[in-house]
Amino acid sequence: MPPASLFLRALNREATERPPVWLMRQAGRYMASYRELKAQHGFLGLCRSPELACTVTMQPIDAFDPDAAIIFADILLPAEPMGFTVDFDPGPKIGGKVRSRSDVEALRSFDPYVKLDYLYQALRLTRAELSRRDPSKALLGFAGAPWTMACYLVEQGPFKHFQGTQVFAANEPLAAELLLDSLTDVLTTYLLAQLECGADAVQLFDSWGGNLSLEDYRRWSLPYNQRIIQAVQRTGGKIILYSSGSAHLLPALAESGADAISIDWRLPIADAQRHLRGRAAVQGNMDPTHLFRQSEDVATEVRAMIRSIPEPHGYIANLGHGILPTTPPEHVQTFIETVKEGWQR
Ligand code: CP3
């Protein structure tokens, strides 16, 4: 079997003997081994050390054996070399100014290999580690989508519904367009370099795109996502587009051109598959709060989720959003093991 076959075949919308499975935010605070390392080095210390980032990426692989690893990093890392200060406690705290066109013009583009060298080294190390242990596992890189990045850069915290970013776009449309345009260029280079350094595919997290109406999404998010998706695919790369609260965006998501659309629990998988009509694989979508139920109930829900899928191809099992920090690790184990039982027919 070729390397990374199960995950990549599902991403290619091919039939798979069982659904591949991984979990968003699978490395993190719900694992005691992560909390120990974070207590010593801090979150950014883990991100900025290639060896530690590789170690943390591998923790859920060793503990739960999912089919893909996602590199340990954060969507906000590229904001720093653009000219912002970035801190986490644990939520993001951003410093910098985005009020006018001249603020946006003052932001810098940068060479990711120079400024974020640690991430690329972490990817190379993790690729080598995965190949040594189990070459069938895929390695994922990722970035925030331009709209979602803009939500953090414009609002800076505390974060609630990101309406301030929509108000900014309404009041300063030219500045907003310039910001999204600059982010698109920066994030494209950032993702292409991740693919060069060993990522098998990348995921674009448009976590807050679902706040927008379909019309606003077509104006403020979709065109920038499409540019990134096309640039990745031109180099032969594969890309997953994550969007939460996005049932109303399905027509636009179908036009995104992404290899897979990652959805949350508010949208049934079968509805997404029907709407996408084979144009993209589907990833998702269990509610992360349901991992707090009894283990038998988690297994029952996973079986029902898999049974709801009409076609045994083009599907990747996952949650609908990141794992919550106090999730019982045994239930993550149950989630993954139950998916591995295979198609529920
Ligand atoms: O999935 C993985 O295991 C890879 C690592 C990863 C992190 N952040 C590590 C992290 C990934 C893929 C992300 C993506 C990310 N970061 C997103 C998109 C996904 C989503 O959840 O919508 C967003 C919006 C961010 C921004 C961000 N970073 C937030 C909102 C927070 C605070 C969240 C919280 O749970 O408190 C972070 C911090 C962060 N990023 C942590 C981790 C493990 C927690 C930091 C800590 O351990 O103290």
Summarize the structure in words.
The protein is α/β, with parallel strands linked by helices and 345 residues long. The protein has one domain (5-339): Alpha-Beta Barrel (TIM Barrel). The protein is 49% helix and 12% strand. The chain has 17 helices and nine strands. The strands form two sheets. The chain has a seven-stranded parallel β-sheet with strand order 1-4-5-6-7-8-9, sandwiched between helices. Strands 2-3 form a two-stranded antiparallel ribbon. Strand 8 (281-286), helix 16 and strand 9 (315-319) form a beta-alpha-beta unit. The model has no long low-confidence stretch (mean pLDDT 96). Coproporphyrinogen III (CP3) is lined by residues 24-29, 38, 43, 70, 72, 74-76, 88, 90-92, 142, 205, 207, 321-322, 325.
Features:
345 residues, alpha/beta, binds coproporphyrinogen III
CATH topology: TIM Barrel
Helix/strand-derived category reads alpha/beta
- For the terminal residues, how far apart are their CA atoms? 25 Å
Q: Write the H/E string, N to C.
A: HHHHEHEEHHHEHHHEHHEHEHEHEH
Give every kind of bound small molecule, once each.
Answer: coproporphyrinogen III
Global mean pLDDT = 96
Shape by Cα distribution: globular
Number of helices: 17
Alpha carbon gyration radius = 19 Å
Biggest sheet strand line-up: 1-4-5-6-7-8-9
CATH class group = Alpha Beta
Uncertain segments are: none
Please provide the count of β strands: 9
